[in-house]
Design a protein that fits this description.
It is built from nine helices and 23 strands. By secondary structure, the protein is of the alpha+beta class.
Length: 411
């Protein structure tokens, strides 16, 4: 490729902090829940690079096609690949794409097409924008988006310099978004470094039933506790685990758990089901009576489970196990930036289909499906979800103009 920046190229990384930084030199963006990527295009050649500097293009053929469809022919973009399913960003659908069979990938791409949310422009034509401060790069990116990003498959991610807006984003975050990103406006693109970008995640906690545990490898002491939540039918589903147990606490905790050993443990979805990550050891677990409740801190909940391991906070002997339901995480299950509510039954969702940096809005007047038992949607609901995401997202500016026009026409 004959570009100022060529792959492999380490993307700028973020340092985790507890609070949103404040000052005139900060720009704030939503932290989308997807696959980070750099997109290189030189004429008819496109390379989509992962955060780990590996090729991603074969897993997202529709993204490669969308990039080739742009009238700009030489550029490097930094962004996030996401897959919306029925108005919800699905990380599970992203994982499904990492598959060896091209036919399978093509089928998934047709059912649930991915999109890219772009937040930086590193090069265009023969100019290296990575050496410019973010303040200038963002202006170039918005100009690039206004001229070239007219397709819903590649969109401009919103940004603000207003810390109050960033705080509203953070406090309003629901599942499908990871938090808020803060970037230094006065710094160039710090490739492979964490000096120019910070990420802030919202603390999320949940009360869970301990439905079982696993012994540590080559030990008769507990290695992890298996967590469960009740559904509306009273079934206890396995939703994840918590480990990181201090060595000094393992013996006492093992004795505590062994007093409650009783089948079946989980009465709904159980641990050790078939998956690409299953091992012989992962299928070995000890069921417990649903007596013990603990509180955990978690990073993200999607597809009916905690995506990563959780952090044990405390025991909750005051909590009735039957109170540990999916409601406490389902309320945070939609990936919207709920910054405001304008008009009846409307909420902000994804960046606008026009090339502004507004949050887009979508009417929720269409019929909602009754909540299902957590897990992958059925074929019929997945097809309906696929149809629902094809509708146009409209920014607040356009929506207000549309409302004003309708009011005038109605007299």
């Amino acid at each position: 490729m004959n570009l100022p920046i060529v792959p492999p190229y380490p993307p700028m990384e973020a340092r985790t902090v507890e609070r949103i930084p404040v000052g005139d030199n900060w720009q704030y963006e939503p932290k989308w829940d997807g696959f980070r990527c750099l997109i290189f295009r030189d004429g008819g050649e496109v390379f989509v690079q992962s955060k780990a500097e590996k090729p991603l293009g074969r897993y997202f053929p529709e993204i490669v096609e969308a990039v080739l469809a742009l009238d700009a022919t030489r550029f490097v973009l930094d962004g996030e690949i996401v897959i919306p399913v029925g108005g919800i960003l699905s990380f599970e659908e992203l994982l499904q794409r990492i598959h060896p069979a091209e036919s399978r990938i093509r089928k998934l791409a047709r059912e649930f097409p991915a999109m890219v949310l772009v937040f930086d422009l590193l090069a265009v034509d023969g100019e290296n924008h990575a050496v410019l401060p973010l303040r200038e790069r963002r202006a170039h990116l918005e100009n690039f988006a206004a001229r070239h990003l007219r397709d819903r498959d590649i969109r401009l991610s919103p940004a603000t310099t207003d810390v109050n807006t960033a705080n509203k984003w953070l406090t309003g975050i629901r599942g499908g978004l990871d938090g808020v990103i803060a970037k230094r406006l006065d710094l160039p693109y710090t490739s492979g470094e964490r000096t120019g970008m910070q990420k802030i995640k919202r603390l999320r906690t949940a009360d869970c039933v301990v439905g079982g545990f696993r012994y540590a490898s080559n030990s008769r002491q507990v290695g992890s506790m298996l967590l469960g939540l009740y559904d509306d039918d009273g079934l206890l589903h396995h939703v994840g685990f918590t480990s990181g147990i201090k060595a000094a606490d393992r013996a006492a905790l093992t004795r505590k758990l062994e007093k409650h050993i009783r089948e079946p443990g989980f009465t709904g979805r159980a641990p050790g089901g078939p998956s690409r990550w299953s091992t012989e050891r992962s299928e070995q677990w000890v069921p417990l009576a649903p007596d013990l409740v603990l509180e955990v801190q978690y990073d993200h909940f999607s597809e009916g489970r905690f995506r990563h391991g959780t952090r044990f906070l405390r025991w909750r002997p005051d909590k009735d196990p039957r109170q540990c339901t999916f409601d406490q995480v389902a309320r945070r299950g939609r990936p919207s930036l709920k910054t405001a509510r304008v008009g009846p039954r409307l909420e902000p969702q994804y960046p606008c289909s026009c090339s502004c940096s507004d949050i887009a809005w979508k009417s929720r007047s269409s019929a909602r499906k009754k909540a299902r038992t957590p897990g992958r949607p059925s074929v019929s609901s997945r097809s309906a979800a696929s149809e629902s995401i094809s509708s146009t997202w409209t920014c607040g500016r356009r929506r207000s103009a549309s409302f004003a026009g309708s009011r005038r026409s109605s007299g």
